[in-house]
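Below is a concrete protein record.
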Amino acid sequence: MEVRGYPVHFGVQLQAQGTTWQAYAEAVQAVEALGFSSVWTFDHMLPFSGPDNRACFETLTTLSAMAMLTSRARIGVLVNGVLYRDPATLAKAAAQVDNMTGGRLDFSLGAAWAEREFKAYGLAFPPLPERYTRLDEALSVVKLLWAEERANFKGRYYQLDDAPCEPKPVQKPHPPIMIGGSGRGSLRMAAVHGDRLNVIGSPQDCATRAAELKQQCAKAGRDPMEVELSVHPTLALAHTAEEAEDLAALIESRLNGGLPPEVPASPAEPETGLSPQPRSVKRANWLVGTPSDVAEGIKRYFDAGISHFVFGFGHPFDLAPLRLFQEEVVPALG
């Protein structure tokens, strides 16, 4: 199957919060064994939802471990936030992981959104325009370090002075670069720097973002077909509609840290596509129902130009919906 000339790709983001390392590692290997094409973690210092005193795994160490836990699936972070670390450190880490996997890393970067994490740890959280400027500069720094024997860059926020980066990534010219976010700044960054744009939204939302991306690519002098379109939905799949609705309610409760959906769980920002306070999950962004229901939902995403799917999946990592997806949904897509 292809959409816009890109092979259809199904991956799973295992949300690294409220769990144990043993459970997480087993889930990484199980997702690969089920035949999914990629496995992802996230980039947070605190749980992105619910109470903040639950486990939340550090990103780069988790990604490195995932490199060793897998042998076929691509791995990545959905998505790295530009404020969590400087771009040179991120470029070095990503190049190392690409070598550790033999060229299976998907790189990503976004403007960062989880303000409560930065407040908790005393880290700067500048306004969105500055974060976009940092994102632009960081992407330039990363690409220069991967491409040049010695890189030089003088930006407002980041600089390089005759800087090497060894080893270089295995993939040439570099690992695929995915930009995460639905705002105009993210679309602009995807048009300039990205190989893929990942958004959260309904098929209609995705079609709107695709049209806006086309405009941004025209401004950047780039063919929009060079940017693959990706979506990050939550999957609530079961044999019956009633079971699927029950599963969706359970997922919503877990995302809220076990609190009822009407209780505020965490701050959020429109840039991410996540729900504002009080938390009410945007069900239009989810795939909920029987295998035939979910297959029809995916086809609507196909119609919007989406070829790359990464399903959000949280602890306790019940594999039944993922197994059902591979057994019944994928064959139904033709």
